Amino acid sequence: MPKDTKRQKQAKWLRLFRKAHRATGAALFIFFFFISITGLLLGWKKHSGGVILSKSYEGTSTELKHWLPIDSLHILANSYLLESVSPELSTKIDRIDIRKEKGMVKFVYADHLWGLQLDGATGKLLHVDRRYSDLIEQLHDGSILDDYLGTSNNQIKVFYTTVMGLALLLFTITGFWLWYGPKRMRKNKTTD
Questions:
Q1: Residues 7, 10, 16, 18: is their CA dihedral positive or negative?
Q2: Residue 170 has pLDDT above 60, yes or no
Q3: Predicted TM-score of the model (pTM)
C-alpha cells in the first residue's frame, strides 16, 4: 500500500474515533458526572466519619450461643423502627447483616433507607441511621429509577450499566487511539 494511502487511512480512522469519542462524551456527560461523583463517595464511605456509612457499634457478646433468636431480634428491630422513626414505615426486610465479631446485627429495610443495629445478645438498640450509602449506590448504578418506576427485575439498572460500561470501553479504545494514532503517524512520516 502506498505511503500516502496508508496515511490517509490512518487519518480517516483518527477522525472517526474523534467523532465517536466526542459524540459519546457529549451524549453521556451527565451520566458520567453522576457515576464519577457517586463512585468517589462510595470509595470514601468507610472513611467519611459516619456521614455516608455509619460505624458498626459493638454488642455485649460475640458468642452466638448467648444471642437472642433472629426472629426475636427481628421483632425488636421492627418495633424500634416504628417507635423511634415513624409508625408509617414498612417493616419489609431487605437483609439482615450478622456481625458476630462485633456482637451486633444490622437490619436493613427494603422500602426505605433506614437501618438499625441491635445488640445480638440483649436485643438493645445500638444505633438507628439513614443509609446514605445505599442511596448513593442506587444513584451510581441507576437502580433508583427501577425503584421509583416500580420496574421488575431491574431492567433500567441493567440497561444503564450496559450502556455506561460499553461507553467507558469505547472511551478507552478511542482515547488510546487518539493519543497513539498521531504518534504513529509522525513516526511513519519520519521513516519515509
A1: negative
A2: yes
A3: 0.76
